[in-house]
Amino acid sequence: MPSLYIKGNILRKEDRGFEKALMDTLFNKLDPKRRPFCIITPHNVADIIATIRYAKSIGKTISVYSGGQSWSANHLRENNILINMGGFQHFQINKETLTAQVEPGVAGGYF
């Protein structure tokens, strides 16, 4: 099986911290009884690209968690690769043009 090398973090089911990382994505803390193959927390866009290529090479689907907390746990799928975008928290607001560029990990409390 090919290996995944990224600057970010890789947590597999058997790794310490996996269950905590998984449950931290849930607002209601109710266990949906679904476990991804691994949880990827990318450091940069290159990590995301590498993860997508890796998933394709091993026949895994991908789901994305933006960094907030989900009530319904839609991001949790059995035996897929979960990409946690919570670290992508940069935003830029242009008051003159009334536009914003916001990465997926930005929560409402940042504003």
Describe the structure.
The chain is globular, with a radius of gyration of 15 Å. A 4-stranded mixed sheet has the order 1-2-4-3. A two-stranded antiparallel sheet has the order 5-6. The model has no long low-confidence stretch (mean pLDDT 92). The chain starts with 8 loop residues before the first strand and ends in a 9-residue tail after the last strand. The chain is α/β, with parallel strands linked by helices. It has helices at 18-23, 45-58; strands at residues 9-12, 38-41, 62-65, 81-84, 91-94, 99-102. 18% of the residues are buried.
Q: Which features characterize this protein?
A:
globular; 111 residues
What's the layout of helices and strands?
Blueprint: E1 9-12, H1 18-23, E2 38-41, H2 45-58, E3 62-65, E4 81-84, E5 91-94, E6 99-102
Parallel strand pairs: 2-4, 3-4
Antiparallel strand pairs: 1-2, 5-6
Walk across the major sheet and give the strand order.
Answer: 1-2-4-3
Q: Count every beta strand, where a strand is a DSSP E run of 2 or more residues.
A: 6
Order of helices and strands: EHEHEEEE
Q: From the helix content, strand content and strand pairing, which structural class follows?
A: alpha/beta
Distance between the termini: 43 Å
Summarize the structure.
The chain is α/β, with parallel strands linked by helices and 111 residues long.
